[in-house]
Here is the input.
Amino acid sequence: MPLTAAQRKHLERRLLDERARISQDLTRYTAAGGAEDEQDRAGDLSKMPFHQADQGTDTMDAELAASNATRQSAELAQIDDALERLTKTPEQFGICEESGKEIPFERLDIIPWARTCDGRTAL
Here is the structure.
């Protein structure tokens, strides 16, 4: 059964909400990265680490934040693609790009930018 107009509207709202959340996270990440140096972010009083592990932890935290920002940027691109598909070809939105079957609404409600019926991502 194809998506109803109400379901498409609900998914559009979900996509816009997710887009706003991720954009806010990315803005916060870029603002925090440029405004402070490592000493300020860690709350250290001096540039000299008290322990070598502190330096490793700081590096790991920075790499994790960068990795999350990269993942969120890719997710944001997928959300923008989904919004474009929903706007330009609403009758094709929610159709699996691999099998041509309908993606269950329950899956789309959780991941509204899903392009496939299963957990894999078609690119």
Notes: The longest helix spans residues 52-88.
